Amino acid sequence: MSILGAYIIPDPLHPAIVHLPIALWLVSSLFLLLALWRPDFFMKAASWLLVIGTIGGIISYYTGPNAIGVAAQIFPSSSLNEHLNTHRVLAQWSTITYIVTTIGVFSYLFWKKNKYLKISLAVLGVIGGLLVFFTGHYAGRMLYEDL
């Protein structure tokens, strides 16, 4: 790989791309809550954020295993293995939650505009936000707890 390629495509890819989906998912969760009062604007805005965030989240989830070896070299902590499985499971549930939320938002926008679906989507957004928070918490504990 050329020197330029090493700077353009980082190795491991996971830490470089994981933060964008997190930001998009959290803002989309806020928009789903705001859609309880102004559904047209905020539901459409949330749909864009969810689609881009969920695509990025799926990519982030599948690049995670490639980052483990490098993380073990940089952060030789006993916490790495202790928290890795919890982080992985929470990341998986975060991704699944936002995939379901994305499908639900498009269902709301194109087929069924009812208040129960809108409230369910807001609840899913809050659940997804909490899952993302705890996923990041365990990532931090996994890498930095022993420092």
How does the SSE layout of this entry go?
Blueprint: H1 3-8, H2 14-17, H3 19-34, H4 39-74, H5 79-110, H6 115-144
Helix pairs in contact: 3-4, 3-6, 4-5, 5-6
From the structure above, extract its key features.
mainly alpha, 147 residues, 6 helices, membrane
Structure description:
This is DUF2231 domain-containing protein. The chain is mainly alpha-helical and 147 residues long. The protein has one domain (19-144). It is 84% helix and 0% strand. It has helices at residues 3-8, 14-17, 19-34, 39-74, 79-110, 115-144. It is elongated, with a radius of gyration of 17 Å.
Give a nutshell description of this structure.
This protein has helices spanning 3-8, 14-17, 19-34, 39-74, 79-110, 115-144.
Structural class: mainly alpha
Reading the helices and strands in chain order gives HHHHHH
Enumerate the spans where pLDDT stays under 50 for 5 or more consecutive residues: none
Distance between the termini: 33 Å
Which overall shape is indicated by the principal axes computed on the Cα atoms? elongated
Number of strands: 0
Average residue pLDDT: 91
Helical percent range?
A: over 70%
Q: What percentage of amino acids are in beta strands?
A: under 5%
Number of helices: 6
What can be said about the biggest beta sheet? Answer: none
